[in-house]
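To close the section, here is one more complete example, presented without commentary so you can practise reading it yourself. The ligand is NAP.
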Amino acid sequence: MMIDTGKALQRAEFELMRLVSNALTGPVRLPNPFRPSLRDQVAGKTVLITGASSGIGRGLAARVAEAGAIAVVTARRTAELDQLVAEIRGKGGSAFAITSDLSTAEGIEKLADDMLVEFGAPDILVNNAGRSIRRPLNRSAERLHDFERTMRVNYFGAVGLILRLLPDMREKKAAQIITSSSVGTLTYPPQFSAYVGSKAALDAVMRIAAIETLSDGVVFTKVHLPMIDTAMAAPEGLHAYTKLPVDTAVDMMVDGIIRRPDDVQDLLGIAGAWLNLLAPGLVKHALHAVHHRMPPRPAPAPQHRTQPTARAHQPAD
Ligand SMILES: NC(=O)c1ccc[n+]([C@@H]2O[C@H](COP(=O)([O-])OP(=O)(O)OC[C@H]3O[C@@H](n4cnc5c(N)ncnc54)[C@H](OP(=O)(O)O)[C@@H]3O)[C@@H](O)[C@H]2O)c1
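Output:
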């Protein structure tokens, strides 16, 4: 039997990368006996969570409602939201749904209006709705729309909501705005420029907003999530590297709500940020090598090419 040495070496290289990245991902938490519980932080408070019809937002909504929060959940898919609300209420929790499309100015306005009229300003706003695209620049020459649509939801959807809700949240003198950012804004992975660009832009706005609202008691927390096993990440074909469960991401978001830091990162994010600071040239060459070894993004399933889908984070060509 002939052994293909090239393929075997490439396989070994993938395995090594998978082991290293999996070892580095997951929340970093030092033991702290004085750490408040999630219930201490959210019981009786209103938490607005965007992108709650699936994945991380759904998991977080269930978690905060279980801890006594009033969870107001929003996304485009009404049936999924209604099911989540029923599940939460079935367990004795408190939840309400507002359907909204955050890719339009009207959708943002409607959500903000409904929220303020029906529930008042949230104590915690979780900007979690998002979509992802992985595509190298050499395949993007005529695809400005990839950058526009990631910006529309990930950046303008979140910024629009912040602008509308912040004045009332400032009045509370103790509010938090938390976002599902990406480890990519610390590590700059190749082929994710449209996605990471939109997340990094929101991170920058949050940093400045945190400075301007410091004396109003509004905390801005960016949670730099690693790759999580949700519908969004499924089309990327990169699961072998970092197949982390939704609970890991929810744990990181909960950590952000409990400790209220500026940033929540895992070891991968911390290592990425430091390496980019200390040895940016080395990191650039290493990531260039990774770029050439990344498997191509799988082609979209045939139905996605012929039928418009309600789920914008599905492969969209
Ligand atoms: N999964 C990962 O590897 C990963 C890593 C880092 C960061 N994140 C971030 O985590 C967040 C949640 O993603 P997920 O992994 O949980 O994926 P997901 O299960 O696909 O959830 C995405 C959510 O965003 C909502 N959404 C998408 N477009 C929207 C729009 N135009 N208007 C309103 N809601 C919209 C979706 O609801 P509808 O389709 O019902 O509208 C869905 O609830 C995203 O911001 C993502 O960028 C994810």
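Once you have examined the tokens, check your reading against these statements. Residues 144-172 form the longest helix (29 residues). The chain has twelve helices and seven strands.
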